[in-house]
Amino acid sequence: MSKKITKIAVMTSGGDAPGMNAAVRSVVRTCAYHELECVGIHRGYDGMIEGDFIPLDARSVRGIINKGGTFLKSARCERFRTTDGRQIAHNQMVKAGVDALVVIGGDGTFTGALHFNAEFDFPVIGIPGTIDNDISGTDRTLGYDTALNTAVDAIDKIRDTAHSHDRLFFVEVMGRDVGHIALNAGVGAGAEEILIPEEDMGIERLVESLQRSKISGKSSSIVVVAEGDKIGKSVFELKDYVDDNLEGYDVRVSVLGHMQRGGSPTCYDRVLASRMGVKAVESLIEGKSNYMVGTIHDTMTLTPLEQAIKGESKINKELIRVSEIMTT
Ligand code: ATP
């Protein structure tokens, strides 16, 4: 039988995402509800190695459900990639009397947690906190909905100025390997074209399509481009090519960048964070380990961490078709 859990640590790691604070709050309050001790680890695995822990009770997480970022701070930690680093981290956890860990982060964070569990048989549960929605085993990752709404809001504003000046804007949104933000924000903001890593449209077809839009009477256009789009090496090269090959448009670029990571989480992300925190702690109490919590068809689920890391988060083909029809 697994050891009874009395003290749980929670940390945020990797790239930050809106809703991380709400998830920490949920973990802390669920621990309090079940009369378990809880500690926060500052700065992800860096803080674990340095023993930078802070006791957290139900009241210490007041007023943070609506705050972006993560009050525990996040970090990328090279030392945790080594067995020596993880050994020091384990010593710190034992010294602090911690007997289980909730990690909030992306696939890198989960990989580190899996190594930690394999080496020390230490119970771990992951909460997928990343704006890219690039983890399988959950319909949505924490922070994705907020990032999407931030992107749509920004594109709406760019649309205003594009329209006033008859401009063609390339708007780059986050997503190196997956185009979830680009596709959904593009459809939501009524973009003329959407370029995602999963589909290579080809630059000639893009120019032809923009040409057709212009002939059909459009005086301004928005092209939403995911960072990892396959056509150009960068959005600026795309802009240069279209500038040289399409007449009659003043072409501009707007890179939304880190603003997509910040901001107050949407209601969806706050609720998701609250549900995930409860599921994470209660799974540890039930003796489960090496799982990621998620929602599939709005039901809380557990997916083996290994599967969550390796699995593909597939782009919605039906939505690609919708976007094609909408850009007619
Ligand atoms: P995001 O999706 O936002 O990038 P992430 O969790 O994938 O988040 P990473 O920087 O890849 O972010 O990973 C976070 C931390 O997890 C790393 O800084 C490192 O400490 C740890 N980590 C990542 N990969 C490994 C690994 N193979 N072995 C041990 N630890 C790892």
TrEMBL record:
Chain sites annotated for binding ADP: 25-29, 159, 190-192, 218-220
Residues bound to substrate: 130-132, 167, 174-176, 227, 252, 258-261
GO biological process entries: canonical glycolysis; fructose 1,6-bisphosphate metabolic process; fructose 6-phosphate metabolic process
Record bears the keyword DNA-binding: no
Active site per the UniProt annotation: 132 (proton acceptor)
Pathway: Carbohydrate degradation; glycolysis; D-glyceraldehyde 3-phosphate and glycerone phosphate from D-glucose: step 3/4
GO MF annotation terms: 6-phosphofructokinase activity; AMP binding; ATP binding; fructose-6-phosphate binding; identical protein binding; metal ion binding; monosaccharide binding
Cofactor entry: Mg(2+)
Domain of life: Bacteria
InterPro entries xref list: ATP_PFK, ATP_PFK_prok-type, PFKA_ATP_prok, Phosphofructokinase_CS, Phosphofructokinase_dom, PKF_sf
Principal subcellular localization: cytoplasm
Cell location: Cytoplasm
Residues noted as binding ATP in the record, renumbered to the chain: 15, 76-77, 106-109
Catalytic activity field: beta-D-fructose 6-phosphate + ATP = beta-D-fructose 1,6-bisphosphate + ADP + H(+)
Residues of the Phosphofructokinase domain: 7-283
Regulation: Allosterically activated by ADP and other diphosphonucleosides, and allosterically inhibited by phosphoenolpyruvate.
Binding site for Mg(2+): 107
This enzyme's EC code(s): 2.7.1.11
Similarity remark: Belongs to the phosphofructokinase type A (PFKA) family. ATP-dependent PFK group I subfamily. Prokaryotic clade 'B1' sub-subfamily.
Functional description taken from the UniProt entry: Catalyzes the phosphorylation of D-fructose 6-phosphate to fructose 1,6-bisphosphate by ATP, the first committing step of glycolysis.
PANTHER family: ATP-DEPENDENT 6-PHOSPHOFRUCTOKINASE, PHOSPHOFRUCTOKINASE
Protein name per UniProt: ATP-dependent 6-phosphofructokinase
